[in-house]
Specification:
The chain has 363 residues and is an alpha+beta fold. It has three domains: 3-113, PAS domain (Beta-Lactamase), CATH 3.30.450.20; 117-191; 195-362, Heat Shock Protein 90 (2-Layer Sandwich), CATH 3.30.565.10. Helix content is 43%, strand content 27%. It has ten helices and 14 strands. The chain has helices at 7-13, 34-40, 44-47, 52-55, 60-72, 115-161, 165-189, 202-216, 238-259, 324-334; strands at residues 3-4, 19-23, 29-32, 76-83, 91-101, 105-113, 198-200, 221-226, 234-236, 267-281, 284-296, 338-344, 347-355, 361-362. The strands form three sheets. Strands 1, 2, 3, 4, 5 and 6 form a six-stranded mixed sheet that branches. Strands 8, 10, 11, 12, 13 and 14 form a six-stranded mixed sheet that branches. A hairpin with a 2-residue loop joins strand 12 (338-344) and strand 13 (347-355). Helix 8 packs parallel to helix 9 (238-259). The two termini are 40 Å apart.
């Protein structure tokens, strides 16, 4: 049964914390409340009058369901709605759709972000993946190190028996490649040491990373700061966190400069910090945490590696080791934090969340 919407109802919707939008029979927005403006980071003036499909790049299937709801004058409940917007993060929402009467049949949509639920599920998956990765890395590194040492030693003995310089070039190739692989194995085993914690500030980390990246990529790259200077000091391993943020930021720089070598400053990375409150990380509740975002305007992460981004030896760049993000995730988890990514062409966001205060309770 279609519900009539009295004119005074709009006034009541203004006060709701739930995002509400009203659509007409053509799926054009007739009304949005302030909570919707906050959710979409747009004013009602820029939203009203547009079709739903103009706001979201992947709304086709959702619009089809809305048209069915209009024709059958029935509502529905979608608990797993994901709507993507150009140059913004994907929204994960619960959505209640209700038929209403305007001058014609219309729909009222109520959106509730389910970011916390999605984050908890992602963190649980990341923790399981991290434990499996750690065991795989340890076993792989130990299995390779012993024969690698024998290979290098044999090449050195062989070199002593050779009297022609051109032949020794081949043994040097073996020795140098063995050394390179040995260094790789050391990197695989290093992250398993516990953090050495000191009192530190996240902006010291950001500034160190910024200077290192600008030294490594001196032209064509701009790194902007967007810091919340009210973030308090916390206990952390400075070197591990510098390495984690450096790996993420270097990946961003390589991606955007690789896509446009002659960027001339158009290639941009933004380091953003904010305080977040009442956040759940690895099933523990924290009153206060910090959120560091590394945002770039590059081509985005290839679709075929999005789901395995933090797996070891997975790389979207030719010649990449596939260890940078794995190590970053390991170091962040050493600090009881979480790292996640949202990517689409033109905007990739890596979000690192670190607790500032001890956990208050398990959830």
């Amino acid at each position: 049964m279609t519900r009539a919407l009295p004119a005074r109802t709009f006034a009541g919707l203004e006060l709701l914390a739930t995002a509400v939008m009203v659509l007409d029979g053509n799926l054009c927005l007739r009304y949005v409340n302030p909570a919707t403006e906050t959710l979409l980071a747009q004013s009602s003036r820029s939203l009203v009058g547009h079709r739903l499909g103009e706001l979201f790049s992947n709304a086709g299937a959702f619009e089809a369901r809305l048209n069915e709801a209009l024709s059958e004058e029935r509502g529905f409940w979608d608990q797993t709605l994901a709507l993507s917007r150009p140059a913004h993060e994907t929204l994960y929402l619960n959505c209640l759709v209700t038929p209403i009467e305007l001058s014609e049949h219309g729909l009222m949509l109520e959106f509730r972000p389910m970011e916390q639920r999605i984050r908890a599920e992602r963190e649980e998956q990341q923790l399981t993946q991290h434990l499996a990765n750690r065991e795989l890395i340890r076993n792989l590194a130990h299995e390779i190190r012993n024969p690698l040492g024998g290979l290098r030693g044999s090449a050195q003995l062989l070199e002593r028996e050779l009297d022609r310089a051109e032949l020794k070039e081949y043994t040097q190739v073996i020795i140098k490649e063995a050394d390179r692989l040995q260094a790789l194995m050391d990197r695989l085993l290093t992250p398993h040491r516990p953090p050495h914690t000191v009192t530190m500030n996240i902006h010291e980390v950001c500034e160190r990373v910024r200077s290192l990246i600008l030294a490594e990529f001196p032209t064509g790259l701009v790194i902007r700061r967007d810091y919340d200077t009210s973030i308090p000091e916390f206990q952390g391993d400075r070197e591990q966190l510098i390495q984690a943020v450096l790996n993420v930021t270097r990946n961003a720089a390589q991606a955007i400069l690789g896509a446009s070598p002659a960027a001339d400053g158009r290639a941009g990375i933004r380091l953003s910090t904010r305080v977040v409150r009442q956040v759940t990380l690895a099933k523990r509740r924290y009153r206060l945490a910090l959120e560091l975002q590394v945002i770039d305007n590059g081509p985005g992460i290839p679709a075929d590696i999005k789901d395995t981004l933090f797996f070891p030896l997975v790389s979207g760049r030719e010649g990449g080791s596939g260890l940078g993000l794995t190590l970053a995730q390991t170091f962040v988890q050493h600090h009881h934090g979480a790292i996640e990514c949202d990517s689409q062409p033109g905007r990739t966001v890596f979000k690192i969340i670190l607790p500032i205060e001890p956990a208050v309770a398990s959830t």
